[in-house]
Amino acid sequence: MRKTADCREFPSEMNCTLTISGEEEEVVRAASEHAASVHGHTDNPELRTMVRESLKDAIPEHA
């Protein structure tokens, strides 16, 4: 099952609209790197756990 991380679900001064979708490990890695490089968070195991817990199942486009 593909997973999705959506910045719009978290308060941000930048009003970030990025959505990342893919296999779980890809999304955790990309979303954590994005959170660090764009939002100033520290990319560490705690952040990756929070990202993983916030993922949602992606809705198939051809459903």
TrEMBL record:
It comes from the Bacteria. InterPro entries: DUF1059. Pfam families: DUF1059. This is DUF1059 domain-containing protein. The lineage of its organism: Bacteria, Bacillati, Actinomycetota, Actinomycetes, Kitasatosporales.
